[in-house]
Amino acid sequence: MNNILGALVAQWQSDLRVALRRWGELANPVIFFVAITLLFPLSLSPDSTLLAQIAPGIIWVAALLAILLGQESLFRPDLDDGTLEQIALSPQPFSALVFGKLLAHWTVSALPLVLLSPFLAAALGMPPQGIAVMAIALVLGTPTLVIISAIAAALTVGLNRGGLLLSILVLPLIVPVLIFGARAISLASVGEEPTGVVYLLGAILALALTLGPLAIAVALRISLD
Length: 225
What we know:
By secondary structure, this protein is mostly helical.
């Protein structure tokens, strides 16, 4: 067990170092997230009440699109340079190493969005109680979005220009996460209890963490064959 955990952490650290060398690419999802969120008030009415009502949906859609922006390149560079085959041939469980890669990808692509979201939500007029629940919902929901999109990325990694197919595969699966995430924020914003919806997000995350790495590992092995 300690060896597996050590391999997972080592893979996470290795992918983080590689990602930090491409810091310019890391900024793209963050800039995209901020731009989408701030462009909505310009394209809609500047009415603060309206913006506060639609803020949960804006934040979640912007987060999803920002995460999908770099998802196609999650496995493709490793496939092109042969790293993915070396990982697959490692004596450590392939799914554990995949989990490490997912954790690194969430750290560099989704965690900055979670940290920025309270400031953007406040700019949209979301009440403080809604902002607090939003942060919790994003912490629970963004890993699920990363895992689901990574499954699609693993299935299409061997295809040229698989971005469109990736989007088609992902969108039906992430709808429940978006619905529950936005609903939890909306309930908290109007003073209602969002605990039940937050628990549903947690249950979906637990299921994704349990089955997601295994499914991704199987899909990558199929792509490598």
